[in-house]
Amino acid sequence: MNPKLLPPQATVKRLSIYLRFLNSLNKDIKMVSSQELAKRLALNPAQVRKDLAYFGDFGKRGVGYSVKKLRDQINKILGLHKTRNIGIVGIGRLGMALACYQGFEKKNFKICALFDKVPKLLSHKIGEATEITDVNLLPKVVKDREIDILILTVPVEAIKEIYDMVLTSGVKAVLNFAPFKLISTENVHVHNVDLSTELEFLSYSLNLNDDPKDNSSEVILGVPSQLL
Amino acid sequence: MNPKLLPPQATVKRLSIYLRFLNSLNKDIKMVSSQELAKRLALNPAQVRKDLAYFGDFGKRGVGYSVKKLRDQINKILGLHKTRNIGIVGIGRLGMALACYQGFEKKNFKICALFDKVPKLLSHKIGEATEITDVNLLPKVVKDREIDILILTVPVEAIKEIYDMVLTSGVKAVLNFAPFKLISTENVHVHNVDLSTELEFLSYSLNLNDDPKDNSSEVILGVPSQLL
Q1: For chain A, which end, N or C, has fewer CB atoms within 10 Å of the first or last residue's CB respectively?
Q2: Which residues of B99-126 are buried (b: 16+ CB within 10 A; e: fewer)?
Q3: In which element (H, E) is residue B111 found?
Q4: Taking the mean position of all CA atoms in its chain, how far away is CA A90?
């Protein structure tokens, strides 16, 4: 990959989707074309080729990709050949759900620390014997257990205070579920997931169906043309 | 909006982010520039202008957008001026977490049906008096309660069977959390959320830091140049 040309976020996310598809293929299948990838994943073949071209130098059309090599390379690009140690901060319903989420199991994502501040939760064990630790010990535990990624599932009122603590902990990556956008720093890469946004995206699609007139050229943002 | 030029998914998702920022502004602030939006949201100003241009016809640079009009239009584009009735299928830990997720409260997303098949869960009430209904009644309840969006949080083994039932129910939109990609049909728009993908995206970022050599032009996908 040309380091000057990092792929957009959407491309990196599609690599996960390609990988999932490649892993689901029968072992007898050795080659796969961009047309097949596109068809099975409801994507555009040109988009598939463009995505994969970020990571390599491809030539003639029409034959396909080696399933094994493509899978190995995507695993390597995504860093999935290494185990990532995960900590979850805030063991409410969502934190608990993530602590037990089956999807992480086979992906080299290992939940190895859970944090909360509610006294009655502390020392409780969840899933595979990971006990809930006092959140004030977060910086120490991150270092001791070599946590790579912290998942934040704390209430929005607590997110600023927790993020300040996270920034001092030395962790490199944060997945934030609180409905408040955290900004990445030079040392900490944050990815914000807002579950309302996912619903808003569907609401947009419903709106296209509800009232086609709403989506015609009649709808403009209502901003005078002299402004920007 | 030009109906021939639908915005990409990433643009629609950023509209939610713009809206959240606009809603957080002090009421005295009447105008906002693309530079401000970009700075506060860690985006590129050109990207902000491009996103908003999908929905309108903008002219000269340098003044800004009317906060009120921009907010009203984004609400309208996303269809957030209407209440959306939501049903959740599969009341395990994640389904329960979503049924109680605070973030949906103020967004016109109303949880009005919960489904499961486990006998001991049926008739239990969660949150604001929504009781868990037998999933076999899903098509009837979707019609009776005018459900707009179904959120699927069932185990991966059950997803195909549930999706077949969903397709017959008349619902228009589905948010799927099972780690299996469902394909939209002509009548049902599906948005798949895979929580592992979010972690994989962070793993990719960590990988860039771990081993810069891994991301140099030495890494290619390993596919012979004559293949595509």
Answers
A1: C
A2: bebebbeebbbbbbbbbbbeeebbeeeb
A3: strand B109-116
A4: 19
Q: Which residues of B touch A101 (CB under 8 A)?
A: 94, 195
ipTM surpassing 0.85, yes or no? no
Q: Which of A79, A179, A217 sits opposite B204 (nearest CB)?
A: A79
Q: Does B204 touch chain A (CB under 8 A)?
A: yes
Tokens of B213: 């050599």
Beta pairing partners, B176 = B152, B192
CB contact under 8 A, B101 and A94: yes
- Is B66 in the A-facing interface, judged by CB distances under 8 Å? yes
Rounded to the nearest 10 degrees, the angle between the axes of helix A195-210 and helix B9-24 is 110
Residue B224, pLDDT score: 27
Q: Residue B40: in which H helix or E strand, if any? A: helix B34-40
* Cβ separation B15–A204 shorter than 8 A: yes
Backbone angles phi, psi at B84, to 5 degrees: -110, 125
- How many CB atoms within 10 Å of residue A1? 21
Please tell me if residue A98 touches chain B, with a CB cutoff of 8 Å. yes
Give percent helix, percent strand, percent coil of chain A, each to the nearest 5. 45, 15, 40
**Per-residue pLDDT reduced to its tens digit, B166-216:** 999 999 999 998 878 788 899 999 988 877 878 888 888 888 776 544 333
- Cβ burial of A41 (10 Å; 0-12, 13-18, 19+) is middle
Residue A31's beta-bridge partner residues? A66
Q: Nearest-CA neighbor of A158 among A177, A139, A184?
A: A177
State the DSSP string of A98-155. HHT-GGGGGGTEEEEEEEE--GGGTT-EETTTEEEEEGGGHHHHHHHTT--EEEE---
pLDDT in tens, A24-43: 788 888 888 888 888 877 77
How many Å apart are CA A55 and CA B220, to the nearest integer?
5
Q: Which of B200, B210, B211, B215 to mutate to test the interface with A (most CBs of A within 10 A)?
A: B200
- Are A78 and B203 spatial neighbours (Cβ–Cβ below 8 Å)? yes
